[in-house]
Amino acid sequence: MSRYRIPGMGRVDPARTVRFTFDGRSYTGLRGDTVASALLAHGVHLMGRSFKYHRPRGPVTAGSEEPNALIGTSRGPGRFEPNTRATVQELREGLVAESQNKWPSLKFDIGAVNDRAYMLFSAGFYYKTFMWPRSFWDRVYEPFIRAAAGLGKSPTEADPDSYASRNLHTDVLVIGGGAAGLQAALVAAKSGARVVLVDENPEMGGSLLSDPSVRIDGQGAWAWLADRVAQLRAAGVTLMTRTTAIGYYHQNFVGLVERVADHLDRPPQGAPRERMWHVRARQVVLAQGALEKPLVFDGNDRPGVMLAGAAQTYLNRYGVKVGDIAAVVTSHDSAWYAAFDLADAGARVAAIADTRDRVRQDLVDAARRRGIEVLAGHTATATSGRLRVRSVRVNPVRDGKVGPGREIACDVLLICGGWTPSLHLFSHTKGSLAWDADNRTFLPDRTTEACQIAGAGRGLWGYGPVLEDGMRAGLAAAEALGRTGTPAGAGVEGDRPGTGVTQKELPTDRSAGKAKAFVDYQNDVTAKDIRLAVREGMRSIEHVKRYTTNGMATDQGKMSNINGLMIAADALAKEPPQVGLTTFRPPYTPTSFGAFVGYHKGATFELTRRTPIDPWAEAQGAAFEPVSLWRRAWYFPRAGEDMHAAVARECRMTRASAGMFDASTLGKIEVAGPDATEFMNRMYTNPWTKLAPGRCRYGLLLGEDGFIRDDGVIGRLAQDLFHVTTTTGGAARVLNMMEDYLQTEWPDLDVWLTSTTEQWATVAVNGPNARKVLAPLVEGQDLSDEAFPHMSVAQCTVAGFPARLFRISFTGELGFEINVPARHGLALWTAIHAAGQPYDICPYGTETMHVLRAEKGYIIVGQDTDGTVTPQDAGLDWAIGKAKKDFVGKRSLQRPDIVAPNRKQLVGLLTEDGTRLQEGAQIVLDPNQTLPMTMAGHVTSSYDSVALGRPIAMAVIAGGHGRMGETVHIPMPNGTVRATITSTNFYDPAGERLKA
Amino acid sequence: MTAQRHDFDAAPFRLEELPWSPRFSLRVRPQNRAALEGALGLTLPARIGERSMTGGTEVLCLGPDEWTVLVPESGRDALVDAGARIYAQTPHSLVEISDREITLRLSGPQALTALTAGCPRDVEALQTGRAARTLFDSATVILWRDGADSFRMDVWRSFLPHVRAILDKVAAELKSGL
Amino acid sequence: MLLIHCPYCDETLPEAEFAYAGEAHIARPADPSALTDEEWRDFLFIRTNARGPHYERWRHIHGCGRFFNACRDTVSDRFLMTYKAGEERPAHATLEAAE
Which residues are registered as beta bridge partners of A279? Predict the structure, then answer.
């Protein structure tokens, strides 16, 4: 048994020893311990070094608000986590823990020199110290800040754990499983409501776990608790422990993080490490209790200085005596009970110093009975001890004057500055707070949500009032749901009522300027820093916070906000509410990225769409590229080929004989109904009335602003039926835009839109031999140029499958696109591939498609256009139905800035020296102009063209259409390149090959 | 004591991909719904989420003017022909989408739990015999509730691998008992 | 994440099923060619950016697919009401009653 463990006390299991290491040294703890309680059981208080001054620190709390005892934990490769709170991390077999912010060791740390250079690190030191000289920034300040910044070590390996998420809908969500929450949950459940009760601890009970001596309904607190939990289960309440409510959002949407596996010795296969719950509750009950505040005085941060409530928790819940000789400094009754529990468990309590002149007589009597010296009306002015507190100096205060000090020897100093309701979640909802002037604390006031607040979370104290309030909240939640609850009173004996006063920093007889009286332990902010910030002009608490960093650490000011506010308000001679309270934001406690990521890691990182032909491409060793959510075959390298070689070959083979391309990702929309033509006329720039069934046309879609939104070939299958294709990335957007017009502007039109993108698999066959490849597979359609000319569409059979066959081309070669029901897509592909073998047919990917279309000057919407390009700019005036009275975007084509000269227009570029330009490269007209140069445009597409034997590029250039033959200049990494403006139709400008 | 327990059932849910079957998207103005019902010999429920079954053909109302029709293969051509015959009097749109979606069946006591991993809407509140177009993870799906523990989920073909992969992760998680 | 009542489905559902679609009650002019450049500019680009009740459009894109109108308080982020496309903008009295 470890030296400070008290047999028979606590809720840990004495029969089950757990081994772990801390900074390389082996320790044992008991099942049920946290790392902090297990180390304390061995008398280890020193668990870390502070962030700024590297001061030795030990745990001050026993809960999730812990600012000091931050450790790194690990469980093998990739499973290292920094900044874990030792007070929360449950012990598991073989846990490896290490302290942080120290070098070379926790006991002797070089960085502690910062503590001596205290004056350098005062409030706002960032803004002062690193101001000048300017030249110091790069070489001195930034490296220094980078090296010193950050808390803990970042993990360096990928996280092998899995994470999960759930959506949960419930009538009532109760947050906090203490006395109030237990009551609220039971009353609500008994009214018939579905209830979920969550608590961040491994077990329900809240402060009851630390107060076993209280008796409720004639039972000991723990027996009552076990009974209540059993009743909750019987009533169908979902009980979730190790589950933290991290954020409270609109309309009772609450994020919970459940720690599933971190406490387990060996998590079972498949178990997630954490699970995020997205909860929607009709009623929320906040029963989060209150957080104990430290007292602020010189040396209040030494290891061994700890909140009184934490010491009580270590004793009663973990059976750990935090020291042999305790001293207490408090301004609240609660610390007296902690002292009594410690004394009753065999520790010596030297003295209780209370800042109040008068303390309840029953407490004084109870202390004296236990041989504890009572020092009312006292302040604490210093502590001693390097790695562990050795004494505290206390002084009487009479009429505001601090009297002579006196050292009290101790190895643990319990402090208590009162309690502040845990307002964090309530504040997430923008609920307003009210200042309780009597108790000098903020309380929740008006709520914006369907929410009840119960217990210590709204300033109540003692189990009687808290249980009563929990019942009230449960009844109120039931009533709000239209249900009737039954009151369930609970009689409390041996209650521990309490009151206290709220302090600023404690009065001292020493120079306040020398005192290291910590307000924010985690960010090393002292009372002096806050007063300095006020002296230097900060008036609002928001400014004080940012200037001093008070409350900005990962504990979000759980311990420091109110104390900081009290000091700032005093310095400003204002009431605290006039100075304000900083905003609490989610998450309530630090939350792993994994919990937010959930299932979205590895193969399910993002939804990836695959075509029916994708498995073939994968089997062929294709390289893939993402195009919107799709992954598309990019190129099909043969042995020894790099991308450049593969693409060059694919281009050459397609133009020489035949190529085939998976075009299944193209968006497809079926436009059907008596008003289909009218709808098409209104949506697209082109005229559709005279397009005969069986023919197709390139369609251009604008936004109402006149800029190009999408394009694609549209086939008219019948009088009332169009097969519309869109770009791959534009499919959903175009359908949404069409539905918008149809539903809201033209609801009179009898036409309906159906997405058929995934109904059809599409294979494009291109090249001079395309017809020869395809003809043997086609039934029901003559493919000859006379019977089936360029821009035709037919419904027929291809390779035995019902098909929609288009004769169109995106390459400038004779081309066909075959659509078959998607389940036949792969079979169609392999059939064409087999039929194409005599012609050496070449499967090609998106890169070759891009090159071939660029050689013809066909645009890619989103690459050659960017949302500011009109049809005229793109040289697509011919696609506009000039006789049409109206279509989407038509009016904008007459706007002054659209018809203005010198707009950027799409042109071709050929470099003089054969350099391939970079896409996105800027273009200037005169390379000798003064800096900064006027950019005339930029390169939108650039490729090596096998067909032309040189690189080609497309670009948008101001007034480009009027600059044919002019030379422009493009700065590239290796110098400025000269290029000539040309037409974008580089290859077969007469279009002879299409007619083959 | 800090005993570890969880309320999940350790039995995994069953996940099956149902075989291909004809499926249509039917659109018609609400005022022509009754006329079309007669011509097609189907019941077109008027309320979103309601279903009907007529002689093996199942219809789900997805929107005020939108229905999904699941027709046995033997009745496919007759449905298309009936639609073509009535089109002139009762304009509508009947588009085959048999290959657009693939249907998964989820069943077993944890089917509902598995769905709550991906569906933000309250799946438990979806009544047996109804259906809803909704989200599972980042995919639009149609979720049919055939029984307390039995669901169908229609997923667009290319979204299916992702949806299945998520459900596989959920299955592994549920099998762990945690 | 908000809850939104779809007036077509008559269900209150998570925001994830919906897509925002800009300000409501801005009808496309019947004859755009009759508009001056300034009038057309205003139609294209000028929006109210209200502080308080704001009329806007949403689409139940992962549900029934319908566009509908909503009045949402941009300060509290609460939906005061939703109504079908084509219905009149509700009067303030109606909104207050809804609130």
Answer: A168, A254
CATH topology of domain A13-127: Ubiquitin-like (UB roll) (3.10.20)
For residue A513, the SS3 value is helix
The verdict on a CB contact (< 8 Å) between C33 and A736 is: no
CB pair distance less than 8 Å for B134 and C64: no
Q: What is the pLDDT of residues A142-177, one digit of tens each?
A: 666 666 666 788 888 999 999 999 999 999 999 999
Task: From the options 3.40.50.720, 3.30.70.1130, 1.10.10.1100, 1.10.8.280, give the CATH code of A517-582.
Answer: 1.10.10.1100
Judged by a CB distance cut-off of 8 A, whether residue A895 touches chain C is yes
Of the candidates B96, B117, B159, the beta carbon closest to that of A759 is on B96
Q: Confirm or reject contact between C17 and chain B (CB < 8 A).
A: yes
Q: Where are the domains of chain A?
A: 13-127, 163-290+421-485, 294-417, 517-582, 661-852, 888-995
- Residue of A168, A248, A251 to mutate, testing the C interface (most C Cβ within 10 Å of its Cβ): A251
How deeply is B43 buried, as exposed, middle or buried, from its count of CB atoms within 10 A (0-12, 13-18, 19+)? middle
Helix, strand, or coil (residue A673)? coil
Q: What are the chain C neighbours of B140 within 8 Å (beta carbons)?
A: 61-62
CATH class of domain segment(s) A294-417: alpha beta
Cα–Cα distance measured from residue A213 to residue A236, given in angstroms and rounded to the nearest whole number: 29
Q: What is the mean pLDDT of residues A609-625?
A: 98
Q: Do domains A163-290+421-485 and A294-417 have the same CATH topology?
A: yes
Cβ C85–A736 below 8 Å, yes or no?
Answer: no
In chain A, which residue's Cα lies nearest the Cα of C1?
A250
Put simply, whether C35 touches A (Cβ < 8 Å) is yes
Q: Which two tokens stand for residue A533?
A: 């910030």
In a mutational test of the A interface, the residue from B102, B141, B173, B175 whose CB has the highest number of chain A CBs within 10 Å is B173
- ipTM of model: 0.97
* DSSP codes of every residue in A869-929: --TTTTT-GGGS-TT-S--TTTGGGGSHHHH-TT-EEEEEEEESS-PPPPTT-EEBS-TTS
- CB-based contact B1 A756, cutoff 8 Å: no
Considering the entire predicted model, what is its pTM?
0.94
**CATH among 3.40.50.10840, 3.40.640.10, 3.90.209.20, 2.40.30.110 for A888-995:** 2.40.30.110
Residue ranges of domains in chain B, CATH in brackets: 6-19+99-176 (3.30.1360.120), 23-96 (3.30.70.1520)
Does the CB of A272 have a partner CB in chain B at under 8 Å? yes
Looking at chain A, the whole-number percentage of residues with pLDDT higher than 70 is 96
- Which pLDDT value is given to residue B5? 45
Cross-chain Cβ contact C77/A250 below 8 Å? yes
Q: Where are the beta strands (DSSP E) in A499-576?
A: 518-520, 525-526
The CATH number of domain A163-290+421-485 is 3.50.50.60: yes
d(CA A295, CA A418): 8
Q: 3-class SS at A825?
A: helix
Interface test with C, best of B27, B48, B141 (most C CBs within 10 A): B48
Write down the CATH superfamily of domain A661-852: Probable tRNA modification gtpase trme; domain 1 (3.30.1360.120)
Residues of A whose CB is below 8 A from C31: 886
Distance (Å, whole) CA A894 – CA A900: 10
Round to whole Å and give the CA distance between B165 and A603: 8
B-facing residues of C in 23-52 (CB < 8 A) are: none
Residues 732-751 in A contacting C (C-alpha not used; CB under 8 Å): 736, 739-741, 743-745, 747
Say whether B64 and C14 touch across the interface (CB within 8 A).
Answer: no
pLDDT digits (tens, 9 = 90+) for B8-51: 445 679 999 999 999 999 999 999 999 999 999 999 999 999 99
